[in-house]
Design goal:
303 residues, alpha+beta, globular
Length: 303
């Protein structure tokens, strides 16, 4: 199996780079990456990595790609072999493209269920400090960013096939399974949600949501974590002052204990902005089965 370390970066497509620059810097508190310049591309930085968000000019507003990190060249070569053995078509990035994005090597592929992915190693760290234009002191990404930028929740029309691929090929571990009912109808079968962890302490780097319906922005949500409640509270003030649509009010999740709020991004998918998420020692962890999403809060449509 591939030893996937973390969610290294995301690629987002946009019809309006200025809108994403405002949202990323003035609302989220990221900074424009000082060490990269590329026509039609906005790079946003949050930690020791030169960037975590690659926003690309497009004719669509949507989530583009999840960039998964492996440890090094040997692990990368083995990962490509395993993907191809599993019947996954891999498109290798050119040396020039990797150089422009500060990656050593990278391949792109589409996972069962439709999630567009890239696999890479050795992004060249610039160690430049985050200088947030709104005073965010930092984000929770681990020592030198080893926990990744956060997590994503992606929809899949075939939950079993997607889960099998990410656990048996990509090497993710099971953290939790949540079964949700959105209707009071007792005949409603509900929808499943697998929470999967990579090789870092974050409770989950990927969640897979059972849904055949298209979702706004081609994603359920993306999560970033801040170190304290005051930073989350200041984000909530910026959201209200900026007229950003609030999707759920503040709440605390049951499985990863995250205190968070969900808002709409310029791409249409949700951003979860939270703090106090669990970090787990996987050597003695037993996966859970949950029936409830939050201890409190996270009411839809309430600020």
């Amino acid at each position: 199996m591939i030893d996937t370390k973390a969610l290294g970066y995301v690629v987002i497509e946009t019809t309006d780079l200025a809108k994403w620059e405002h949202f990323g810097t003035r609302i989220m508190g990221l900074m424009v990456a000082p060490s990269l310049q590329e026509d039609g591309v906005l790079y946003l930085k949050m930690d020791e990595y030169p960037y975590r968000f690659r926003i690309v000019k497009s004719d669509k507003d949507r989530f583009g790609v999840a960039g998964w990190e492996v440890a090094g060249p040997q692990e990368f070569a083995q990962a490509v072999r395993e993907l191809e053995a599993a019947g996954i078509a891999c498109e290798r990035a050119s040396p020039a493209a990797c150089k422009a994005r500060l990656l050593s090597e990278m391949v792109a592929f589409t996972a069962p269920g439709g999630l567009r992915c890239e696999l890479f190693y050795y992004m060249r760290l610039d160690y430049l400090p985050l200088i947030s234009p709104v005073g965010v002191k930092g984000f929770v990404t681990g020592f030198n960013g080893t926990m990744g930028l956060g997590h994503i929740a992606a929809a899949t029309p075939d939950l079993a096939a997607s889960h099998r691929f990410f656990t048996s090929v990509m090497g993710f571990g099971q953290t939790d399974y949540l079964h949700l009912h959105f209707s009071p109808d007792p005949a409603d079968p509900g929808q499943g949600l697998h929470f999967l962890h990579a090789a870092n302490p974050r409770h989950h780097s990927l969640a897979l949501f059972q849904s055949a319906d298209p979702l706004p922005g081609d994603l359920v949500h993306l999560m970033v974590e801040v170190p304290d409640l005051d930073t989350l509270g200041a984000f909530m003030d910026r959201v209200h002052a900026g007229g950003v649509r609030v999707i759920t009010c503040l709440g605390r999740h049951t499985n990863d204990r995250m205190v968070s709020i969900y808002v709409e991004t310029p791409a249409g998918f949700a951003l979860e902005y939270g703090f106090d998420g669990l970090q787990i020692d996987w050597s003695n962890y037993v996966p859970t089965f949950s029936k409830r999403e939050s201890h409190w809060g996270h009411r839809w449509g309430q600020g």
